[in-house]
Design a protein that fits this description.
Layout lengths: L5 E4 L9 H17 L4 H19 L3 H14 L6 H13 L8 H9 L3 E7 L2 H11 L7 E5 L4 H10 L7 E5 L2 H10 L3 E4 L19 E3 L6 H5 L1
Parallel strand pairs: 1-2, 1-4, 2-3, 4-5, 5-6
């Protein structure tokens, strides 16, 4: 008897909207800095470099993101923006969940025929809060919230859950986090594009292995339902 098929499913921008809230905050932050005399390109580059440096220490999520906004604002001497930044952190962390089209119906079908584990990066409390607000928790047999998605992360998950790589698939929207390291770990991969991808997650697809390219989350039902 073959071991059960396991689907590792990314959360942010795969199950529900996420990046749009960060983009809105960044655009408003840059606009507010511009109104105070900071050139747009300079503000964008400073924030990008600050985020890239801090991610290695703070990880992902609204608190980590807004810590970078605070750092940039202080560095530029624009401390009057700090109350606004704190408001953005609260909103991003607690906003109502907007599911991607067909997620509820598709997960309901996949749940009965696969072992489902939600695998996401970020702050544990924040991600569990989103899962709870989404109403999707009953569809998952497990939840894993990790600091980073690396080859080592996937190997550790295979061992922890006694999974067989050849019967395990990683599903997500990020080549850097969901596809390339999972392929390197011997997993099957499914790429579901999101209309906008954070610059940090953009990466060329690794040539090794194969990746199933789908247009929407609903298409999973045809392959794993």
């Amino acid at each position: 008897m073959q071991p059960q098929r396991t689907l590792l499913i990314d959360a942010d921008d795969t199950l529900w909207e996420n990046n749009i809230y960060y983009d809105l905050a960044i655009n408003e932050f840059v606009a507010r800095l511009a109104a105070r005399g900071v050139p747009v390109e300079s503000a964008q580059e400073t924030l990008w470099q600050t985020e890239q440096r801090n991610i290695k220490i703070t990880g992902y999520g609204s608190a980590a993101f807004c810590a970078s906004l605070h750092e940039v604002a202080r560095g530029l001497g624009v401390t009057d923006l700090e109350p606004w930044i704190t408001e953005q952190e609260h909103f991003i962390c607690h906003h109502p969940i907007e599911l991607m089209t067909g997620v509820w119906e598709t997960l309901s079908l996949l749940h009965s025929k696969n072992h489902l584990i939600m695998l996401t990066k970020g702050c544990t409390d924040e991600q569990l809060g989103k899962l709870d607000r989404s109403g999707l928790a009953p569809f998952f047999h497990g939840t894993e919230i990790v600091f980073e998605k690396s080859v080592e992360t996937y190997h550790a998950l295979l061992q922890k859950h006694a999974l067989v790589a050849e019967r395990t698939w990683m599903i997500g929207n990020s080549p850097r986090s969901d596809i390339n390291p999972a392929k390197a770990a011997g997993l099957g991969t499914v790429f579901i594009p999101y209309h906008t991808t954070w610059q940090h997650e953009i990466e060329e697809f690794a040539p090794n292995g194969t990746t199933l390219m789908l247009e929407s989350f609903e298409d999973l039902a045809r392959h794993f339902g």
